[in-house]
Design goal:
There is one protein chain. The chain is built from one helix and five strands; from the N terminus they run αβββββ. By secondary structure, the chain is mainly beta. It has a domain of about 60 residues: SH3 type barrels (Roll). A hairpin with a 5-residue loop joins β1 and β2. The model has no long low-confidence stretch (mean pLDDT about 80).
């Protein structure tokens, strides 16, 4: 007899309270912090990130417009802009 494993939707609804909020991240004022998050494919990754980075932006530019439940911050680990779903952040070094 064959067993079937149901597919789990890893992207949580925006109604789930995230571990940290956009305001918590903005209050870091450019300081480095780390996050552990779950990607859409279920793998878990860790990044050292920060806000206030101007690398890779056109003059006077900003990162792409944000989706309300996402945050776009610069990953020092990968040296590129990354967008994270707030509800999928599992750990954070932000106090």
């Amino acid at each position: 007899m064959e067993t079937h494993t149901p597919k789990i939707n890893l992207v949580k609804s925006p109604y789930v309270k995230p571990l940290i909020t956009k305001d918590d991240i903005r209050k870091t004022n450019g300081y480095f912090f780390s996050i552990v998050y779950r990607k859409k494919d279920g793998t878990v990754n860790k990044h050292v990130v920060r806000t206030g980075v101007k690398v890779g932006l056109k003059e006077g530019g900003k990162p792409r417009p944000e989706i309300p439940e996402n945050i776009t911050i610069f990953s020092i680990t990968r040296k590129e802009w990354r967008s994270f779903i707030l509800a999928n952040i599992l750990e954070s070094s932000i106090k």
